[in-house]
Amino acid sequence: MIVSKNSIFLNQKVWAFLFCWALLVPAFGQQRKNPVIDGIIVKLDNQIILKSELEINHAQIVASGQADSPNLKCEILENLVMNKLMLARADADSVVVPDEQVKGELDRRMAYFVSQIGSEQKLEEYYNKTIKQLKDELRKQVRDQLVLQRMQDNITGSISVTPREVTNYFNRIPQDSLPYYSTEVEVGQIVKIGKPSRKNRDEARKKLEDIKKRIEAGEDFATLARRYSEDPASAADGGTLGFFKKKELVPEYEAAALSLEPGKLSRVVESQFGFHLIQLIERRGEEFNTRHILIKPAASEVDMAETAAQLTKIRASIQKDSISFAKAAKEFSDDRATKDNGGLFANPRDGSPYIPLDKLDPTVFFIIDTMKVGQISNPMPYRTEDGKQAQRIIYLKSKTPPHQANLKDDYQKISAAALNDKRRKALDTWFDKNRNSVYMEVNPDYQSCNLLQTPN
Questions:
Q1: What is the pLDDT of residues 277-295, one digit of tens each?
Q2: pLDDT at 402 over 60
Q3: Would strands 240-245 and 355-356 be described as parallel, antiparallel, or unpaired?
Q4: What is the pTM of this model?
């Protein structure tokens, strides 16, 4: 098997962690501050595993709370080998993901990183790189992760567990290995982004039209971009975005950019981000390089009051049982990260809706601190990860006191663990079947991990 079975929960955690995309920036940060002497330790066809890759993943897993052990690095390496084998097989089987999906995931992850560090400017200052440069460095990792997810879905997507399998799985866990759960909550939100009035939109458009006239009269585009553009990721570079392929930028922007001759200005273009004035710098095959000035129309106090009123009506409908919170979130929420999950926040460690109280976002914690289970807060101001003004309501769905795992209180979590275990075994079987389909070479220092050992 790909992973030793001496600890059910340990191996599930390692297995899940190595499929988790939250490790991107921490790994990048560790490489920046604590460089590791590097070298190739495993080759699988055209895929490689570096020593730094193993060391960084090991450090992250231990930092996340996993107890270290003599076998932990081998378990991590075995999972990395499985990932690389799936990538090699995906390449052989022509499994691909669309560029648009890669871009969407990059944008989502970058917005998360920005929200964690405070601003795009702080993120750029920390790494001494522009947002565009950071995205370029992470693009291959994101694409590989999405390919891995697709391969994993092909192998395990149809697997399910029955109640009997869940019970049997739980009964196999030694009593002294059952986890002890601290206080956990299920919390949801419905977000409505404030829509600027036509007056504010017209004012933003006019401001950009005036800037365009100044450029046409001879002023420098880059200088005005640094002064007026509300896209901090590009403003410092004079509005330059760098080279992108088709379908990597929003359609309105791309269509306007590709209609231009180098050096020419576009008309003022509106997208989901605001109003753009675009200048094409260069086209190179299927790629194009542009710069832009972005002006975002702001929502006024009246606009935000109307947004709050919409949420008040939604809240009242939920309280009257005219609609469930989950359905209301799916139909009305503007938050893509939670709307398809019943509005519920996900635990970043395992993706479940159960979040330990001490791991909850402090802002949300103080909102729910005085709430009772089942209550929904009044609308309150909120700023989205990409900086848009919004209002949201918060829902406390459940609150579970500290306890040792049991089937009655934790059936969903145990069911998810049983399903993960069954999927992991399917991946083990797939690995054993396909390990000889690629050429694999292992550094002698890691032969003790038995990566080349044929299963009995």
A1: 999 999 988 889 999 999 9
A2: yes
A3: unpaired
A4: 0.59
Query: Contact at 8 Å (CB) between 294 and 275?
Result: yes
Q: What does the H/E/C string look like for the chain? A: CCCCCCCHHHHHHHHHHCCCHHHHHHHHHHHHHCCCCCCEEEEECCEEEEHHHHHHHHHHHHHCCCCCCCCHHHHHHHHHHHHHHHHHHHHHCCCCCCHHHHHHHHHHHHHHHHHHHCCHHHHHHHHCCCHHHHHHHHHHHHHHHHHHHHHHHHHHCCCCCCHHHHHHHHHCCCHHHCCEECCEEEEEEEEEECCCCHHHHHHHHHHHHHHHHHHHCCCCHHHHHHHHCCCHHHHCCCCEEEEEECCCCCHHHHHHHHCCCCCCECCCEEECCEEEEEEEEEEECCEEEEEEEEECCCCCHHHHHHHHHHHHHHHHHHHCCCCCHHHHHHHHCCCHHHHCCCCECCCCCCCCCCEEHHHCCHHHHHHHCCCCCCCECCCEEEECCCCCEEEEEEEEEEEECCEECCHHHHHHHHHHHHHHHHHHHHHHHHHHHHHHHCCEEECHHHHHHCCCCCCC
Question: Is the confidence at residue 18, as pLDDT, over 50?
Answer: no
pLDDT of residue 52 exceeding 70, the answer is yes
In the chain the first and final C-alpha atoms are separated, in Å, by 9
**Which residues are bridge partners to 396 per DSSP?**
187
Tell me if domain 180-195+300-403 and domain 198-295 are identical in fold: yes
Could you tell me which CATH number the domain at 198-295 has?
Answer: 3.10.50.40
Tell me the C-alpha distance between 384 and 107, whole Å. Answer: 14
In this structure, which topology does domain 180-195+300-403 adopt according to CATH? Chitinase A; domain 3 (3.10.50)
What's the chain's average pLDDT? 85
d(CA 227, CA 221) in angstroms, rounded, equals 10
CATH architecture of 8-179+406-449: Orthogonal Bundle (1.10)
Which tokens sit at 135?
């995205």
Q: Which residue, 103, 141, 111, 133, is CA-closest to 19?
A: 141
Please choose, from the candidates 48, 148, 156, the residue with its C-alpha nearest in 3D space to the C-alpha of residue 102: 148
Instruction: Please check the confidence at residue 323 and state whether its pLDDT lies above 90.
Output: yes
Let me know: does 213 contact 424? Beta carbons within 8 Å.
Answer: no
**DSSP-derived pairing of the beta strands 274-284 and 269-271:** antiparallel
Above 60 in pLDDT, residue 19? no
Q: Region 439-454: what's the mean pLDDT?
A: 81
Domain ranges of the chain: 8-179+406-449, 180-195+300-403, 198-295
Task: Assign 9 a pLDDT band (cuts: 50, 70, 90).
Answer: very low
